[in-house]
């Protein structure tokens, strides 16, 4: 039986590939998609999620909009990576996938209640929607199998010195999720920087030859060019699909059980994830932290999924 999943995302180039991996792999069942402000304003991220599904020919998956900003902070979209519309590069088609009338919380609740088994939540942006759901619908916590989140880092960040963007965007939400007691897997920069979009990767995606791959290559070209300018990385790291890959096949990543705290008050460190890899603090473990990636296996999953789409 495929694992039922809900993706909460802020597309974003790499979020698009996470959606495609979930839609194109038979080991997971994509029940729904919720959107959050992060890489772009909510208007853009919601439209982009619908476009991603439209391009790939995915039907019957509801898309609902969620929070338009962090719990307590001001939204700062990642325009320096993703462009003003959060999906720079290709000419974006009009989405054929409709916007569901429910909120992200309402859609998630309905999907959890309707599922025959607990559902895996896969957030690939700031954790605002997940935090709000846990606060507003505490009675449904038992319907969540686990949370696999792209965010944080075991080392330095990519926004300022210490914080990774998704954690930095809403550290209060991340703190709430890590203290929730639910099973959490953290996919941070330390592993996502192993998923580099090399020229060979782009060529292998292009060789698929379908509509999805052609659109994907345009996304990857823009993404890598932006990373070269802003981070000095000509081969951009495709962060978000690793979360879905772990839901499909946990052997794709080595994880370490440990304690994670999220910094919410530091002047220079807000959003930093303090990952106690050596049990220095003696605190109860509250997360599986992804450490290393089986890179060939990961890219095979991505390519096979794109090839299975339109």
Word description of this protein:
- The protein has a single domain, classed as Ribonucleoside hydrolase-like (Inosine-uridine Nucleoside N-ribohydrolase, Chain A).
- About 40% of the residues lie in helices and about 20% in strands.
- It is built from twelve helices and nine strands.
- α1 runs parallel beside α2 (about 40-55) and α4 (about 105-115) packs across α5.
- It starts with a strand and ends with a helix.
- The model has no long low-confidence stretch (mean pLDDT about 95).
Strand order of the largest sheet: 3-2-1-4-5-6-9-7-8
| Percentage of residues in strands | 15-25%
Helicity, as a percent range: 25-40%
> How many domains make up the 3D coordinates?
1
Q: What pattern of helices and strands is seen along the backbone?
A: EHEHEHHEHEHHEHHHHEEEH
Low-confidence region ranges: none
CATH architecture: Alpha-Beta Complex
How far apart lie the N and C ends? 24 Å
* 3D shape: globular
| Total number of helices | 12
Which topology does CATH recognise?
Inosine-uridine Nucleoside N-ribohydrolase, Chain A
Rg value: 18 Å
The CATH class turns out to be Alpha Beta
Protein name: Purine nucleosidase/pyrimidine-specific ribonucleoside hydrolase
GO molecular function, one term: purine nucleosidase activity
Keywords: Glycosidase, Hydrolase
Domain Inosine/uridine-preferring nucleoside hydrolase: 5-300
